[in-house]
Please model this.
Amino acid sequence: MSTKYYPVIDLFAGPGGLGEGFSSVKRKNQCGFKSIVAIEEDEHAHQTLHLRHFIRDFKGGRIPKAYYEYVAGEITLEQLKKLLIVGRANTCRQSRK
Model:
């Protein structure tokens, strides 16, 4: 089984840095690198990393409205995750039809 991406391990990751840079590299419309582990000690940087990894999964750079509601403090992280997981499930069901 061959991997379609190069795995990246980001030590002392800060709020993005190396992993963000590698994840932005595209190869034939596919990500050439994938951050599989990011390690960070600072709580705020860790929260940013967690959110960036979650948001990075959205295709075509389309950031959902719920993300901006979270950043504005209008919804919690748990509410954001629930909204986006439900949205992904609906998208998957629609694409199978």
Summary: Strands lie at 6-10, 26-27, 30-31, 33-38. The CA atoms of residues 5 and 70 lie 30 Å apart.
